[in-house]
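Notebook entry, structure prediction.
Reason for the run: the old model in the group folder had no record of what sequence produced it. Starting over properly, with the input documented here first.
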Amino acid sequence: MNLSRQVLGMVGLMIGFGLYALAGRLAAPWNSVLVGAVFAALGISTVVYGRGERWIQALGGVLLLYGLVRIFVLHR
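New structure, fully documented this time:
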């Protein structure tokens, strides 16, 4: 059992939920841009973390792509 990995996962969840709550307080389009930036950062970190695991890197690519689309296309 890798305790540090579980702790990092919980800290990451807290940071993610905190940023999502903060984004809800911002005016449009900044709320959508912030959420898109979080998805893009998550995608980049997933690609870096998933070295050697193609499906994890593919998931990271999808997250990165969604984040960029949300920043540049889906903002209102």
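Summary: The chain has one domain: 3-72.
The old model has been moved to the deprecated folder.
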